[in-house]
Write a structure and sequence with these properties.
Number of domains: 1
Distance between the termini: 43 Å
Strand order of the largest sheet: 1-2
Largest sheet: 2 strands, antiparallel
Radius of gyration: 16 Å
Number of strands: 2
Helix content: 40-55%
Oligomer: single chain
Structural class: mainly alpha
Length: 67
């Protein structure tokens, strides 16, 4: 399966039987991101978290499930 990264527009090949290919095929809302872009975003998110000014907020659905 040919896939295109949503950030850098690089075209990659995924095996048709891989879980990621099945997810992309069956759920069109999911998008593909190549490994270098994913790692770059992950690293920048960790840096933002380390500053202490970035906070993850819990969704209302999770709060309801906790009670």
């Amino acid at each position: 399966m040919r896939v295109k990264c949503v950030i850098c527009d690089i075209i990659n090949e995924l095996e048709d039987d891989s879980p990621q290919a099945k997810k992309l095929r069956n759920r069109p809302i999911h998008t593909y991101m190549c490994n270098p872009c994913h790692e770059r975003i992950e690293e920048k998110t960790r840096v933002r978290l380390a500053t202490g000014k970035f906070v993850f907020y819990k969704s209302s659905r999770r709060i309801e499930e906790d009670f």
